[in-house]
Structures are given as structure tokens and as C-alpha cells.
């Protein structure tokens, strides 16, 4: 736990997730001198990192990050940590929350990085359902700090680091404390109004499902292609920007002034352009990001149920038209032949059903219903 009597002590971080983002964060934190533990469910990943006692980091950050330990034992990873950072696919957040519930300790902060749409709300709902009685603050970021790739366990390449990242806590009254802790490592993390602002500022929901579906022919052609530079054509970029107006309208219904997806690229990467298609091509961190060769990727299987579905559900609750978002959701279901809505986040399973916009805002600030 963070001890106020030792203000100079660096907080201990537990990173849950040993994929691209988890290894990048664990390695970078270790290079900055923070005590870091890494947890993952894949023994092969943990064995490599444990054997070499850390992670080799390349790209925008370079060096060998020596971590405290890597483990497949969640209790070992969480014990006495100050910050429990969940860096895992959003589809895994529910089970991670359930498994963490009996292990969390008073004063710990759970930081979902990123939360997709509704990550902190879902995590808090699961902790409540599991009768977690510890004083724990749940928080989330709107995106992952890095563009990164891990070609093999124990080695990660950080292609780019965002200039700004939005963070908020549930309850919102805890956001300033959370940001104060996080900026001991990452000064670019800034306060959002609440976890609905971070959730509705999730860029993946805009940038992944629609463009992926509209590039189906390219994906199935077998050719090599670049996701952002080849895939975000002027017409596809224009469609995304039109869909983005629905996201911003959701924000206005909750008294949030959300930047457009094109403005987000300027804030996050310093990449500007007259159109979204232009802006992504100004982002050098995306220069080598290859397009996928299958539709069965996180761009649909995660970013639809955990990104767009909750936005559509929220739009219906608040009476905000979300026709383009709903079209992408339905098209993804038709193309994949799967029900993505029933497995997704909705106002019902996020604990917002039946609430007015004012009631939602009050819950976000206080963490209490009614």
C-alpha cells in the first residue's frame, strides 16, 4: 500500500496481463525504477520472463527492465501492491474482476488500462456482486499508453507513446488522487470528468470495427497491407468521422464535451490532418502497423461487444440516435455469424439500466446509486 508517511517511496505496480501492452508497461516501469510484478495465465510467457528476470524493451524506450517477479499466481502478484494495473483484453475483465475480488486489499487502486467502454463500471459491478468489502478504488484509461508489439515473450517494441492519456476513477471524487499516483510514472496522464468520459473517449470503438468490416476484401485477399495507411481511405475515414458524431452526441447527453476522433489523434500523437484519413498518415507510430488477415480478430470480437455495444445500449437508454454504430454491430454479427450483443456490455450489466442522465452522472461522481 502507498504509505503517506513515506511520500518519497515509489509505489509497487502489479501488471495483470503479459501481452503486448502488459510487457511494454512492466518493462518501462522497471526501467524507471519502480517495483513491478507481472501476472499472466500463460505459463510459457511467465517462464521466459521469470528466467531472464525481466523484459527487453526496444524502440521509443530502450533497455532491460528488471522486474521483481513474474508469476501465474494471482494472489502472489496482487499481495501488497499499491497499483493493480489490468492490461488485458476487455473480454477478460469480468473474470479478472471475479478472481481479484477475494484478493484485493484496503487502499489498493485497480487501474484498467484501457477500460474499453465501461471497463471501470463493469469491474466495480463484479466486485460488488462478489461481496468484496475492501476499500478499493477502481479507475480506467481511455486508451493504451503505447503503440507496441511483443514479437516474443520477454521482448517488446514500443513504437510510440501517447502525449496525453485520459484517466478517471469510480467514484469520480477519487480521480485526482488516482492521477497523482499514476503521474509518478507517467506525467502525460490527465484527469477526465468521470469514467463515462474515459469510456466514451475509447478510440478503438471508432477505429477498429467499422474499418475492419469495410476492408473485408483486403483482409481476405492474402496480401500484405498497412491497417491505417492503406485501410483508412478517404471514404472509410469519412464514415468513421460520421459515426463519431454519434459518440460525441452521447457525450453531450451526459454533459461531456468530447473531442472528435480526429482531434484525439492530435492530442494523443500530435498527428493533425484535414480529414481522419490524413491524420492517421501523419502518425509515425502507425507507419508499420500491418493489416490483419482474418476477420476473427480483437477489432471485431472485442471492440464490438466491449466498445460499440455499450455505446448503442447507452444511446437507446438516453434517446440518442446511434444508427451508424448499430449498423456496424449488426454487420459484424452477420459477417461473423455470431451473436455479439448478448456477450457484450450493456446498461443492464453495467448497472445503469433505468437511470436518467442525471442519475448516471450522480453515480459516476459518488459511486452510490439512489
Secondary structure layout plus pairing:
Elements lengths: L12 E4 L3 H12 L4 E4 L3 H10 L1 E6 L3 E4 L2 E3 L2 H5 L4 E4 L6 H8 L8 E4 L6 H11 L7 E5 L4 E7 L2 E7 L3 E6 L4 H8 L6 E3 L3 H6 L3 H4 L1 H6 L1 H4 L7 H5 L2 H20 L7 H9 L6 H6 L16 H4 L2 H15 L4 H14 L20 H10 L4
Parallel strand pairs: 1-2, 1-6, 2-5, 3-10, 6-7, 7-8, 11-12
Antiparallel strand pairs: 3-4, 8-11, 9-10
Q: How much is the radius of gyration in Å? A: 20 Å
| Strand line-up of the largest beta sheet | 5-2-1-6-7-8-11-12
Described by strand count, sense and barrel closure, the largest sheet is: 8 strands, mixed
Total strand segments? 12
Mean pLDDT: 95
Low-confidence stretches: 1-5
Q: Estimate the helix proportion, in percent.
A: 40-55%
Strand content: 15-25%
Q: Which structural class is indicated by helix and strand composition?
A: alpha/beta
Shape: globular
H-E order? EHEHEEEHEHEHEEEEHEHHHHHHHHHHHH
**What's the helix count?**
18
Distance N to C terminus? 31 Å
Question: What would your notes on this structure say?
Answer:
- The protein is an alpha/beta fold.
- The protein has 18 helices and twelve strands.
- The protein has helices spanning 20-31, 43-52, 74-78, 93-100, 119-129, 175-182, 195-200, 204-207, 209-214, 216-219, 227-231, 234-253, 261-269, 276-281, 298-301, 304-318, 323-336, 357-366, and strands spanning 13-16, 36-39, 54-59, 63-66, 69-71, 83-86, 109-112, 137-141, 146-152, 155-161, 165-170, 189-191.
- The strands form two sheets. It has an eight-stranded mixed sheet, with helices on both faces. The protein has a four-stranded mixed sheet with strand order 4-3-10-9.
- Mean pLDDT is 95; it is low at 1-5.
Amino acid at each position: 500500500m502507498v504509505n503517506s508517511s513515506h511520500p518519497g517511496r515509489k509505489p509497487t505496480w502489479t501488471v495483470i496481463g503479459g501481452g503486448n501492452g502488459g510487457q511494454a508497461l512492466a518493462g518501462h516501469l522497471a526501467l524507471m525504477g519502480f517495483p513491478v510484478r507481472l501476472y499472466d495465465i500463460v505459463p510459457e510467457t511467465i517462464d521466459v520472463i521469470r528466467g531472464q528476470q525481466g523484459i527487453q524493451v526496444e524502440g521509443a524506450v530502450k533497455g532491460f527492465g528488471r522486474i521483481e517477479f513474474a508469476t501465474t499466481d494471482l494472489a502472489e502478484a496482487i499481495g501488497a501492491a499499491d497499483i493493480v494495473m489490468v492490461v488485458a483484453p476487455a473480454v477478460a475483465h469480468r473474470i479478472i474482476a471475479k478472481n481479484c475480488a477475494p484478493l484485493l486489499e484496503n487502499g489498493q487502486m485497480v487501474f484498467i488500462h484501457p477500460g474499453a467502454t465501461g471497463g471501470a463500471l463493469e469491474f466495480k459491478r463484479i466486485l460488488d456482486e462478489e461481496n468484496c468489502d475492501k476499500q478499493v478504488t477502481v479507475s480506467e484509461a481511455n486508451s493504451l499508453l503505447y503503440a507496441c508489439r511483443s514479437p516474443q515473450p520477454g521482448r517488446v517494441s514500443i513504437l510510440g507513446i501517447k502525449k496525453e492519456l485520459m484517466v478517471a476513477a469510480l467514484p469520480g471524487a477519487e480521480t485526482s488522487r488516482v492521477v497523482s499516483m499514476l503521474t509518478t510514472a507517467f506525467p502525460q496522464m490527465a484527469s477526465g470528468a468521470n469514467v463515462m468520459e474515459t469510456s466514451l473517449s475509447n478510440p478503438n470503438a471508432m477505429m477498429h470495427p467499422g474499418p475492419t468490416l469495410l476492408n473485408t476484401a483486403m483482409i481476405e485477399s492474402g496480401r500484405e497491407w498497412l491497417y491505417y495507411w492503406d485501410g483508412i481511405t478517404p471514404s472509410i475515414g469519412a464514415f468513421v468521422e460520421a459515426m463519431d458524431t454519434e459518440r460525441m452526441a452521447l457525450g453531450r447527453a451526459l454533459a461531456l464535451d468530447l473531442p472528435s476522433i480526429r482531434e484525439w489523434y492530435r492530442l494523443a500523437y500530435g498527428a493533425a490532418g484535414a480529414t481522419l484519413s490524413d491524420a492517421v498518415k501523419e502518425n509515425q507510430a502507425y507507419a508499420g502497423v500491418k493489416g490483419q488477415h482474418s476477420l476473427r480478430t480483437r477489432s471485431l470480437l472485442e471492440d464490438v461487444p466491449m466498445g460499440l455495444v455499450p455505446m448503442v445500449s447507452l444511446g437507446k437508454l438516453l434517446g440518442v440516435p446511434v444508427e451508424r454504430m448499430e449498423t456496424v454491430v449488426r454487420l459484424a454479427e452477420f459477417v461473423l455469424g455470431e451473436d455479439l450483443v448478448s456477450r457484450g456490455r450493456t446498461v443492464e450489466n453495467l448497472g445503469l439500466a433505468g437511470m436518467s442522465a442525471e442519475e448516471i452522472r450522480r453515480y459516476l461522481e459518488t459511486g452510490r446509486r439512489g
